[in-house]
Amino acid sequence: MRPLSTINYFLKNKRKLLSNITVIIVAICLVYIMECFVSSIVQSIYPLDATRFEYASVLVSTEAVPEIPKEIITSLEESENIDTVIPVTVRQIVFSVPGSTTHAAVFSAGSENLAYLVDKFQIEVLAGRLPENGLDEIAIDESVAKNNDLEIGSRTSIDMSYNLDREYTVVGILDSDSHISFAGSPTLQDSALKYDETGYLVFASDGHFEQMENEVSLLSGQGINVWTLSLYNKMYEKNNQTFQILDTMVILAIVVMVVCLVCSKYAQFFSRKSEIGILSALGYTRKEISKRTFQEVIFTNLIGFVVGLVIAILLSKTIVTIIFDDIGGTGVYLYWKAAILSLLAPTLTTICTLFPVNRLINKVDAISIVTNN
Amino acid sequence: MNYQLNNINLIYDMEKEGGTTALQDITLSLDGKGLIGIQGPSGSGKSSLLYIMAGLKYPTSGNVFYGDTDLTTLSMSDLATLRRKDFGFIFQQHFLINYLTILENALVPLNINNKIVKKKAMGFLERLGIAEYAHKYPYQLSGGQRQRAAIVRALMNEPKVIFGDEPTAALDHESACEVMNLLTEYTNNTMVVIVTHDESLLKNADKLISITDGKIINVSGLEETI
Fold first, then answer.
1. DSSP state, residue A62
2. Which positions 252-281 of A are in contact with B (Cβ < 8 Å)?
3. Pick from A3, A282, A287: CB nearest B104
4. Domain boundaries, chain A
5. pLDDT tens digits, residue range A206-227?
6. Angstroms from A320 CA to nearest CA on chain B
7. Positive or negative CA dihedral for A141, A143, A144, A146?
8. Is residue B44 part of a domain?
9. What's the pTM?
10. Which residues of chain A have a CB within 8 Å of the CB of B77?
């Protein structure tokens, strides 16, 4: 091995290598895990809120329109853009993951429509059965059941904040990407139903989803609470600013880390001024000395990045699985954006170290080194 | 390789009024081998003369011919390449790299680590009596042993000229004489230029240049005149 090779330098200076790499690894782990955490929140919450609108738009009565007029429904049913309009009662059940809470839809429909809904929402009954109409039974989505610690035979708790005004017995576990649950009560004929507890699911004709959404969206002007995928996504984009702020904070954190790393690395090279000076006196060109320095910096950051990324992925897998997957959420541990943001730390460190160190090399005067010592 | 220095002047801090003259009108011819001593009081300019000859410093004016090459026309990079190829250096301090073993330090000028160069380095280390410390680190050796290791490093590239700037200053007199004797051994085929203020160390010098206030005041053992 060449005496001035990068590998030899780090073999002889294992502690320095370890300390340099450790800082990079910590930086990468922090950034990666934070990004995975945020992504896990999004991936856990978004499908619960949004995916059902990929199958059907939802109309819900409001205080202004406590009962959606029959003529509106008839007009929808007659539209070529719409396949079916199914009346439902609307309930919600809480779904919480660390950092966010939302609600999953619980619909109650007439028994004549239940099979159609199961088919349209591509729901699979994993265990048990669908609820009996009129009974306080619920067939609950698997993720929601896990999140609320429910299984077949157990009972839901009353949660008035989410219109869950009765205790349901779990009779079935469902699986679907829309995370919809079905309850047997209240029925549409229940006189105690309030204005925001009834509504319609509107299914598009084949190839007419967009037109159906446009048609349904117009009803919001008539005081009806309308939910379509595009409306939801617009609202989601507005709320998404929180995550953008978080990304900005992550980048700021990276910059702070990079500044600290660069200062530390510069100090290390500054302490090797005499080595740089003597190599220069012995006949190594500045280009050769710079090249050696660059290789050391790049080697450290590359090793730090690779090791850091592997550790970060393993840690994310462990942490995120425990925090999200085990409670019905979606834990993300392989995330390209996190990897790219993690790459920022070693890349910026490399670039920001090379400039001042190169300047240092150019400024080192071999004669002053050999005469001042 | 012969040296020809023509009207060399070196002025520091030229931007300040008058500047500081380190060397003044130095004209000198040197043969390609032998022990050349440069002596003079502290601040007389002897080290400056050595650095100019070694291509570590550009003179303010004048020319330095090393063979047919005018060092003053070479770039910093070309001078570095020349130093590595043709020159060996021993400084007042050993300037060994602390994290490398003595053997690795010896290999630094070549930056090669194969059997042939290792054998060569071990031969030098043996000759200088420090072969047993080949795998030790500089901080594990005494001052004299480290300076010997620095000499081995200076010899590794088979230099045509060895420059020593007060190479014995950090040593006791006995070690200093020992180091000088070792260097004298290489003067048959190599030019060894030694700067020192200790005249007694240059008793074997083939040529002795005395400098005071940046001017050569005497050259003994030389046919050439100032």
1. -
2. 274-275, 278-281
3. A3
4. 6-45+240-372, 62-223
5. 999 999 999 999 998 888 999 9
6. 43
7. positive
8. yes
9. 0.80
10. 285-287
